[in-house]
Amino acid sequence: MWVDKRDDGAIEPPLPQAAGYAVVIAIGFLIAFIMIFATHVLKKTVGEDNKTTEMFMTANRSVGTGLTASAVISSWLWSTAMLGSTLVGYNFGVAGPFWFAAGCSPMIVFFSLLGIACKMRVPEAHTLLEIVRIRYGTAGHIVWIGLCLINNIIAIANMLLGASAAITALTGMHIIAATFLLPVGVILYTFVGGIKATFLTDYFHTFVITIIICFFTIKTFTVPEIGSPAGLFDLIVEAGKAHPVAGNQDGSYLTMTSKGAILFGIIHVLANFGLVIMDTGFFAKAFSAAPHAVVPGYIVGGIAYFAIPWCLGTLMSFAALGLEGTERFPTFPRRMDTIEISNGLVLPYAAIAIAGKGGAVAVLLITFMAVTSTISAQVISVSSIISFDIYRQYFNRNATDRDAIRWSHFGVVFFGMFSAAFSTALYYGKVDLGWTLYMLGVLTCPGIWPTVFTILWKKQSKAAAIISPLLGMATGIAVWLGSASSLYGEITVASTGQTLPCVYGTVASAFSPGVYSIIISLIKPDNYNWADLRNERLAFEQTGATASSQEPVSHEDKVANYTADKARLKHWGTLAAVWAAATFLGHWVLWPLPMYASKYVFGKGFFVAWIVVAIIWVWITMLIAGFYPIIDGWQQLRNVYRGLKTGTAIVEEATLDTRTHISDKGSRTRNSDQEVNSSSEG
């Protein structure tokens, strides 16, 4: 097999620069055009008008379970999920990808509880920050704006750094060109289509990515040096003998007893709790989902997602470990250096080793699609903050629907460009994917407990909500920097990116705000009336039902419907809580910890079973991401077809939940105000 290298030992990009520009620009614009066209068709056939804020920001709160599940998978299908899971698999063995996956699924499922609680208590909300403002006033609102923007900025920088480095390694495209061009197509279709375009793009990208991942599950075993899961096992046994892993049982790659992996797992699960709970994009998707779709959509999406970093990370990192001593591997005869590993190049190099230029093209596509899909979610969430929480609240309280849409558009463009500039600054500051992957929890975690308490605990006081995340962030940063200085004698990018300072800082940032909040709240507790969250009119008034939904649109009707459906929403909340607890116990306690404590090193039979289960799971994920939205959304697809055929907009048939709402709407509306004002329950 061909292996091109430069004089300095670095590999020559397997693809020409033209391929990088073709994917980033041509395919980016093509996808943007398709999504803009799809938005136009939906407006023409089913009346989804993105010139209204309710459609642009929340898709009329009517997205079904299948599309919600696909969007949830996509929301966490970051380029770093694929690049990072292979990175930790290469460093730590089987434990790395497992802990990467376990660091994502439990909190995605847990978010279904927060999502349904928000649906029940604030049915007209567009962002998390509106809820915070109603409960805690201007001071709390400003604090949360800062926390959420920090979260979004760190998250998008993490994506762009990893994706740009991978694209550069594959094509030779200048890394700064990739960083600035990646958001362009995203800005176009998000600007026009809003969150529904984000959902549709999520679906398309996720389906393509999962198909390519399934291709790798087959292609890996067609390589003669590997041949089968048993053959891969033999290669990894030899790799463990040649390059034993410090902190792993017997130095083996085939054990869950890995000190480095479990420390990474602690960082990852806490950081991802912060990334989920403080990401207004997740709330926007929950608000956009129909009431009956929030819980099953997030549960199905969260559990299905687990297979992607677990399967892909294990297979591709082990392919790299098994093949890097052969001429197939791009860096042969040397191993990858620490810079290449930290830049997330394990996956691209492994793909080249098993599939040549075809593997390079596959990784280029999945990296591009993953990063653009998640950029879309980030820019729509930040644009909602700019339009609803900054402009509408502090600059123009009498803003019209048109004003809000204009500022949403401004937010999409501004944050897309800002994210590229910020990522460029980090790159020139010698910050890479490995550093951001480890330290981001220090900055994303302080808002976890105050936000959960805001939605679920009526006793949290205003003072606790405002002070605890600020104290928590200060505590986390102090512990992080102090640990780096104490352990390594300096505070630099290198020392602050080490495992132990990041573990200590992330744990401090995650848990100290909860302690601060409880202590402050117990000194002078609040007793918040949840019904007060529904008193403020948040949605812009519309004159009638939209063509795409038969739900009533007035503030009173919406409040009456959700109040009357309190029992059903509470049932969904209970189901969400049970699934969240079960997912956490399964992925974090019952499955991995006994394997860690037993110091078990995988035998050949167990490893083969491990790989087979991971492959089956990821194929099921592909089927869920690709076909469940089609099955679940078949009625709307029929309506689109009928609309195109007749040339008129087709009113979508009401769902079971909506028909129940409408059937006795009149009897509820008359006494809704009295019920809302007197109720103190969620």
TrEMBL record:
<feature type="transmembrane region" description="Helical">
    <location>
        <begin position="298"/>
        <end position="323"/>
    </location>
</feature>
<feature type="region of interest" description="Disordered">
    <location>
        <begin position="662"/>
        <end position="682"/>
    </location>
</feature>
<dbReference type="InterPro" id="IPR001734">
    <property type="entry name" value="Na/solute_symporter"/>
</dbReference>
<feature type="transmembrane region" description="Helical">
    <location>
        <begin position="435"/>
        <end position="456"/>
    </location>
</feature>
<feature type="transmembrane region" description="Helical">
    <location>
        <begin position="375"/>
        <end position="395"/>
    </location>
</feature>
<feature type="transmembrane region" description="Helical">
    <location>
        <begin position="605"/>
        <end position="628"/>
    </location>
</feature>
<feature type="transmembrane region" description="Helical">
    <location>
        <begin position="139"/>
        <end position="161"/>
    </location>
</feature>
<feature type="transmembrane region" description="Helical">
    <location>
        <begin position="407"/>
        <end position="429"/>
    </location>
</feature>
<keyword id="KW-1133">Transmembrane helix</keyword>
<dbReference type="GO" id="GO:0015204">
    <property type="term" value="F:urea transmembrane transporter activity"/>
</dbReference>
<dbReference type="Pfam" id="PF00474">
    <property type="entry name" value="SSF"/>
</dbReference>
<feature type="transmembrane region" description="Helical">
    <location>
        <begin position="98"/>
        <end position="118"/>
    </location>
</feature>
<feature type="transmembrane region" description="Helical">
    <location>
        <begin position="20"/>
        <end position="42"/>
    </location>
</feature>
<keyword id="KW-0812">Transmembrane</keyword>
<feature type="transmembrane region" description="Helical">
    <location>
        <begin position="503"/>
        <end position="523"/>
    </location>
</feature>
<feature type="transmembrane region" description="Helical">
    <location>
        <begin position="63"/>
        <end position="92"/>
    </location>
</feature>
<feature type="transmembrane region" description="Helical">
    <location>
        <begin position="261"/>
        <end position="278"/>
    </location>
</feature>
<feature type="transmembrane region" description="Helical">
    <location>
        <begin position="167"/>
        <end position="192"/>
    </location>
</feature>
<dbReference type="InterPro" id="IPR031155">
    <property type="entry name" value="DUR"/>
</dbReference>
<dbReference type="InterPro" id="IPR038377">
    <property type="entry name" value="Na/Glc_symporter_sf"/>
</dbReference>
<feature type="compositionally biased region" description="Basic and acidic residues">
    <location>
        <begin position="662"/>
        <end position="673"/>
    </location>
</feature>
<protein>
    <recommendedName>
        <fullName>Urea active transporter</fullName>
    </recommendedName>
</protein>
<dbReference type="GO" id="GO:0005886">
    <property type="term" value="C:plasma membrane"/>
</dbReference>
<keyword id="KW-0472">Membrane</keyword>
<feature type="transmembrane region" description="Helical">
    <location>
        <begin position="463"/>
        <end position="483"/>
    </location>
</feature>
<feature type="transmembrane region" description="Helical">
    <location>
        <begin position="572"/>
        <end position="593"/>
    </location>
</feature>
<comment type="similarity">
    <text>Belongs to the sodium:solute symporter (SSF) (TC 2.A.21) family.</text>
</comment>
